[in-house]
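Recall that a protein's primary structure is simply its ordered list of amino acids. Everything else, from secondary elements to tertiary packing, is in principle encoded there. The following example makes that idea concrete.
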Amino acid sequence: MSHTTSSRPLPQEERNTATADLPPDDLPEPATDATDAAEATPDAAEATPDAGEAAPDAGEATAHAGEAAPEQHTAASEAPAPAPVPAPAPGWRDRHPVAARALAWTTTVLAGVLVLVTLLLPNDPARLTPAEFVRIPVEGIAGAALLLVLPRTVRRVAAVLAGLGLAVLAVLDVLDIGFVEVLGRGFNVVFDWVLLGDGASFLQDSIGPAGALGVEIAAVVLVLALLVLTALAVVRLSNLMARHRAAAAGTTLVLGTAWVLSAALGLQIAGAPLASRSTSDLVQARMDGVSATLKDEREFARQAATDPYHSTPGSQLLTGLRGKDVIFTFIESYGRSAVQDPLMAPGVDAVLAKGTERLRAAGYSARSGWLTSATYGGSSWLGHSTFLSGLWIDNQQRYRTVTAGDHLSLTKAFQRTGAWRTVGIMPGVTKGWPEAKYYGLDHVYDSRELGYKGPKFSWSTMPDQYSLSAFQRLEHGRPHDKPLMSEIILTSSHNPWAPLPKTLPWNKVGDGSVYRSIEKAGKKPVDVWQQTDRVRTEYGKSIQYSLNSLISYVEKYGNKNTVLVFLGDHQPVAKVSGDHASRDVPVALVAHDPDVLKRISGWHWTPGLNPGHQGPVWRMDTFRDRFLKAYGPHPDSTTPAVAAR
């Protein structure tokens, strides 16, 4: 009896040929235990046609096997043959075996490369060299050995978790690289997450809201893709090892032996150890960093609670400055590089030299030195608080601790005397600033209170000359029953240093509307940042503008009672200051009254506004006590320090 069908199963030889060229990792994983074997074996009831369907008589179908009666053979031979099961349509792999093989191997290789890169990725931009990625990672060897001995289900879970862990570590390494480039230090996993918001704000000011949103979305997508792809890559490699246990075990043993020998002999590739344990070292370093950060928080809290000036009466503070209008001014990113770098220094040094002469002609004298800032490349508030509190504040938690307490700040010392009105000019503050209470400022003029009607200049909400003009209009130029102590933050030298404002006649500044055409004609940040020399040049110009604005203000509006202390808060980013730059910033004290400078003669500061290469260098946190000692009685060294309330 013949049967007609639309398709037929492939003969065994053809099926063997169709799958022969596929890589092992695309074939079904062999059973690794009894349960897997049972799952991999087709059910006998499904594989064998029902005897009742194969024979017309049930009794004949259930005859004993040993009876082999002729009637049974006859019945079986006359029974209709079962209809053949249609073969499934050939898949893409069956139609294109060579391409499938190539794709599978390519995917496996890429998975291996991704895992290797995440294992060997350094967290220091100086180490981003090809030699770093041709080493033997001990973590990969140990991970492979562990996956080989785990049962199937546990192995897959472990592979997923390992992939996710590697991806997270890679993200942290990238954050480290970015922070080193910008802030000169690694990423603190405890405190630095808040700074990512500042980075987003900087992007928005540099490339606009739409561009910043695009970058943020791309960053999120890349992080998610890295998490997913790394997990899939480890799973794929673990499946491959499970299918070839003997070969995988042998390879792992060889690599482990090579690692041990390389470590023992100290073998290197381009200066990098061939035997790598960078991932485990970085994990340990991060764990130690978290522990050290939490310990530092407790120790700093105790340090901030002890202050030798805490109980000094206001009547004994700052007696040498009574009757003076004292102005503390921070110039954003004004660092040693600005006055000593071969590209930027000529223009800045000329401004300082000419400024010294201009102030001398107006009856002022100046002395200058160096302070080592607690921060670098950004986080200006850490530099401000270090200078004013007399405490080393190099992370966000320290800043929160000191500003939430009552450790005496330099500006609050003026307020405690009752002899000064204390104000702040803060164009960079765009919302409520509760820290004003800690700093002892009677009133803070933030960007919303300075009356500015002009455009922003990238990050800077207004030009420095306008900020000083507003200070004159709102406070310094108005009659008061007390002299002023002012804290002024100048922001025009904040990166990205494009576009830049221009110096105007003071009577032309007005409400700032005049700056619209200047901002529109200025350079775009994205154009400036394409070349390092261009960035450095524009940075130097921004410092020149800020210095000129401040010097010009003292010339025009200063008087015989004016005392000005101005300094940088930190060095600019490494793209400008260079790799391994110091954290030194210039500081200068300007006064009309010779007695003011006579009190700091023991400081041995350099005459003029430029401290020069050989000027004294102090840590920034030492300035408060030196200043309070120079201009008032020093607390009795025999009296125990009083804990702050």
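DSSP finds 26 helices and 15 strands in the chain. The chain has three domains: 12-78, 103-290, 317-370+409-635.
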